[in-house]
Amino acid sequence: DKALEFYTKNLGFKVHTDQQFGPMRWLTVHPAQNNNFEVVLMLAETTQEKALIGKQAAQKPLICVSVDDCKATVKTLKDTGVTFVQDVKEEPWGISATCVDVYGNIIY
Q1: Which uninterrupted H or E stretch holds 5?
Q2: Pairwise CA distance, residues 26 & 58, whole Å
Q3: For residue 6, what is the DSSP state?
């Protein structure tokens, strides 16, 4: 629920699927403008899974999201409380920024 709140309230994602299958909850969210891309929010259950929270992609981005206006998006996300570990940066291919989700996963 904490991840769901972050992805929907802070990042503006929408719930795609929220279905209970016995004891398992299948919960996916997607960027508001792209319901063809889903992020699964699953509860870590085992000791091994719990040890990987926030580290699924090590120091690399877990996901990369393309937006029309990076500078405006960063400003909006900062206003919702999103933490950026790399502010807006001019790159050879365009403009980028890097934030973290509520568990420390890197989002580019």
Answers
A1: helix 2-5
A2: 24
A3: I
pTM for the structure as a whole: 0.89
For residue 99 the two structure tokens come to: 């934030």
- 30: which strand partners? 14
**Whole-angstrom Cα distance, residue 85 to residue 80?**
15
User: What letters, b where the CB count within 10 A reaches 16 and e where it falls short, cover 41-72?
Assistant: beeeeeeeeeeeeeeeeeeeebeebeeeebee
Give the tens place of pLDDT for each residue, 43-99: 999 999 999 999 989 899 999 999 999 999 999 999 999 999 999 999 999 999 999
1, two tokens: 């629920």
- Say which DSSP state 1 is in: -
Provide DSSP, 10-78.
Answer: IS--EEEEEEEETTEEEEEEE-TT-TTS-EE-----SHHHHHTTT-TTTTS-SB----S-HHHHHHHHH
